[in-house]
């Protein structure tokens, strides 16, 4: 019995401790557990506290999934939003890496970690054999290094799009070709030639935001380090896992594969393996907005959400608000408490005033986004083009208007506007007239809706039994079992 347990695959899944990464890697962990693999899912202490008791795994596979946590090194009242992202990255590297090394070392022995050392929400650790494989977020290169040093097979999980990772991996070539750095004040509409497969449509403004900063201000040494670290650790990993589908990113995946030991495209995971029974939202979802949607006509509502990290200036907020009101459709807007400089009450009141205190708008601090996008009343999605949001909208066939903010969002939104054509890219412009015009177009264009619906069908085929993502997930489970034996 003990020998059989010791031979079982036990995977430590470690996402970057932010909402978007959890939303993607939690369904992955659930899926592994459903496939019979034992899984330890590693949160930050802060996030596990925020998720509360409902984060305890429940449901048929709960015996095979447990949660542990490590400190992220920041005070509890730190907002961990985009303004402080660099602090979070640095603090994780300084503090979480040490705790992670100690935890992994202890999980490699048969002895389970003690409660005193690590917060164990499920407390089901006693039956777990030693960890046989680590799946670490690609944005935690040090976690990949630690696993490698402790001689545990490690896979890198990229929660962003494959096209953005290909752009990252192409950085040395971009510098070589002179695509980077951009000349100061140079034209952002100039084409970029150094990312394979994207030569016909990629412009400077579509590159990930850190490239843009490097372009505008000369070669940013931090970018060089980040690019080097991501590429180095991805190369070290036994495989890269992407939350994407063949029909979305076939070309990018094909260009990445020759440079890696193996590549798996297993998404969109949220639709394949919903982790509904486990709390995943760091904010409390406002369920009232679904009841509000119930009272609206089919495809009449604009859903507006800029994800879990983006913040906007008061001026940008005002431009959005004026454009949305002028477009004339009812809208549901997620405005997190830390999102606009002014107090949340003041912001909510401004929306009420602008809409004449009528029923045109509903504002919430956090929505059950997947339920909202699935709702018959939603006609389009004004989004920051975060990868989870894109995948969620793609699956529901909802046309998008993209206002990308940072990281991979710039390149994702180019794919929406120019490759998949399931939405419009409002990149770099935040003016009321443009908001009004693009929202109208997304709501009314038959062509955009047809593209969105056709893409949804294709991706649904990828995740159905026998589809590319479903087959890749099976191959991945076998791969993990082999690494674990
Ligand atoms: N989300 C949500 N409710 C909201 C806003 C966002 O549940 O009101 C979820 C959304 O469904 C997605 C995630 O938060 O899964 C945001 O991830 P994404 O990659 O789109 O953007 P990020 O927050 O990482 O910038």
UniProtKB/TrEMBL annotation:
Its EC number is 2.4.1.-. Keywords: Glycosyltransferase, Transferase. GO terms for molecular function: glycosyltransferase activity. Coiled coil: none annotated. SUPFAM superfamilies: UDP-Glycosyltransferase/glycogen phosphorylase. Belongs to the UDP-glycosyltransferase family. This is Glycosyltransferase. It comes from Urochloa decumbens. The lineage of its organism: Eukaryota, Viridiplantae, Streptophyta, Embryophyta, Tracheophyta.
């Amino acid at each position: 019995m003990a020998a059989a347990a010791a031979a079982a695959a036990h995977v430590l899944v470690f996402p970057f401790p932010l909402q978007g990464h959890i939303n993607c890697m939690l369904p992955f962990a659930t899926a592994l557990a459903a496939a019979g693999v034992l899984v330890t899912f590693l949160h930050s202490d802060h996030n596990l506290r925020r998720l509360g008791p409902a984060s305890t795994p429940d449901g048929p596979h709960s015996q095979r999934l447990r949660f542990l946590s490590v400190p992220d090194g920041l005070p509890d009242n730190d907002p961990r939003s985009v303004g402080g992202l660099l602090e979070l990255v640095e603090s994780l590297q300084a503090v979480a890496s040490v705790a992670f090394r100690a935890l992994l070392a202890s999980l490699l022995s048969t002895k389970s970690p003690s409660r005193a050392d690590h917060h164990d929400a499920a407390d089901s650790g006693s039956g777990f054999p030693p960890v046989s494989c680590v799946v670490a977020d690609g944005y935690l290169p040090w976690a990949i290094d630690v696993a490698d040093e402790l001689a545990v097979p490690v896979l890198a999980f990229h929660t962003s799009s494959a096209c953005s990772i290909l752009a990252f991996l192409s950085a040395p070539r971009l510098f070589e070709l002179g695509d980077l750095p951009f000349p100061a004040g140079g034209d952002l509409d100039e084409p970029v030639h150094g990312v394979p497969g994207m030569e016909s449509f990629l412009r400077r403004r579509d590159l990930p935001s850190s490239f843009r900063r490097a372009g505008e201000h000369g070669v940013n040494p931090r970018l060089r380090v980040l690019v080097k670290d991501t590429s180095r650790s991805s190369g070290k990993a036994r495989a890269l896992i992407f939350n994407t589908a063949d029909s979305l990113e076939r070309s990018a995946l094909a260009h990445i594969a020759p440079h890696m030991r193996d590549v798996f495209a297993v998404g969109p995971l949220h639709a394949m393996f919903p982790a509904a029974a486990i709390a995943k939202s760091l904010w409390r979802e406002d369920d009232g907005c679904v009841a509000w949607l119930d009272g609206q006509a089919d495809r009449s509502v604009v859903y507006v959400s800029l994800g879990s990290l983006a913040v906007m200036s008061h001026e940008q907020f005002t431009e959005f608000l004026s454009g949305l009101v002028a477009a004339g459709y009812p809208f549901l807007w997620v405005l997190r408490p830390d999102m606009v400089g002014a107090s949340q009450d003041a912001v909510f009141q401004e929306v009420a005033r602008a809409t004449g205190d009528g029923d045109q708008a509903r504002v919430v601090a956090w929505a059950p986004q997947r339920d909202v996008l699935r709702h018959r009343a939603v006609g389009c999605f004004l989004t920051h083009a975060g990868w989870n949001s894109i995948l969620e909208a793609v699956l529901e066939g909802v046309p998008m208007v993209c206002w990308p903010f940072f990281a991979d969002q710039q390149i994702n939104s180019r794919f929406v506007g120019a490759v998949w054509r399931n939405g419009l890219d409002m990149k770099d412009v935040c003016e009321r007239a443009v908001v009004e015009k693009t929202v109208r177009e997304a709501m009314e264009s038959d062509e955009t809706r047809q593209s969105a619906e056709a893409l949804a069908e294709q991706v649904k085929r990828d995740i159905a039994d026998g589809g590319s993502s479903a087959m890749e997930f099976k191959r991945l489970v076998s791969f993990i079992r082999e690494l674990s034996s």
